[in-house]
Amino acid sequence: MKALPPTENTITASPRTPTGLRAASGTQNPGKFTFVGPSDMVFPHLATGGGWETTLVLVNLTNTAVTFGQAFFDTSGQPLTVTFQSIPDGQQLTTSSAQGTLNPGASFNIKLVDQGTGLKTGWSVISYDATGARLGGYAIFKQSIAGSPDFEALVPLSAYDDYVFIMPYDNTNGYVTSMALLNPGANLDSQVYVTLLDTEGNTVSTDTIPLAKGQQLAFSIPERFPDTQGKVGSILFESSTTRLSALGFRFNPQHAFATIPVLNWSGMFPQ
Known about the structure:
The chain folds into 2 domains: 40-159, Hypothetical Protein Tm1070, Chain: A (Sandwich); 164-264, Hypothetical Protein Tm1070, Chain: A, CATH 2.60.290.11. 1% of the residues lie in helices and 48% in strands. The chain has one helix spanning 221-224, and strands at 40-48, 52-60, 66-74, 82-87, 92-95, 97-102, 107-112, 120-127, 135-143, 151-156, 158-159, 164-170, 176-182, 190-197, 203-211, 216-220, 232-239, 245-251, 257-260. It has a 6-stranded antiparallel beta sheet with strand order 5-4-7-2-9-10, with no helix packed on it. The chain has a 5-stranded antiparallel beta sheet with strand order 6-3-8-1-11, with no helix packed on it. Strands 12-17-14-15 form a 4-stranded antiparallel beta sheet, with no helix packed on it. A hairpin with a 5-residue loop joins strand 14 and strand 15. Mean pLDDT is 85; it is low at 9-21 and 27-36.
């Protein structure tokens, strides 16, 4: 990078007439990248208990009511029974799966309740007909540590087909990058091929992570990949199947954290 004289903003806008909420199957701009795609149905990590709390938010982005299912799984892909509380009415439900309906523009907020049985981790999947509708959402992670303020970060609802992506990391000055890697496929085990890259894009080392169907693996990057200790760089992940979800966490020395979404683009996926 090098410094340049002040430069004008060159992004130009055109006028348009607002249309309100629309069906996902309506006339669309094929050249417009959309933040919420039809495969965005996975919360690849959730945690409750042991000082952790997860709140899940869903929003109906279309002009028709959407009936959806939500299922919770543990790190081995087995049903995970959780107690969640709906916001703001405070109603509680204990189950491993549930069904709901969202009217156009409606939202649904639930908080996983700490049942006092220690830390529970896993993942969750949303199921609905995405042909003519679209649900958006995100997860809020909250960590409470005695003697410190509570910390929160959020990550959008993830795609189930991010089977190739790059995850940047920064493990310098006491910072630690962690991540959760999930095989959301119900029918196939997978091999996730890992390529560690330095800041120049050179290969540092490679590895392979086996993931059984439905398995989720959460880990500290410098612990799993010692070549990244005290360094900055990125990691290329590519699955042997068309199903993979992930998210990253960046912790500072005072335990505050931020979430890191996966990085990819359409050119990384073969036709």
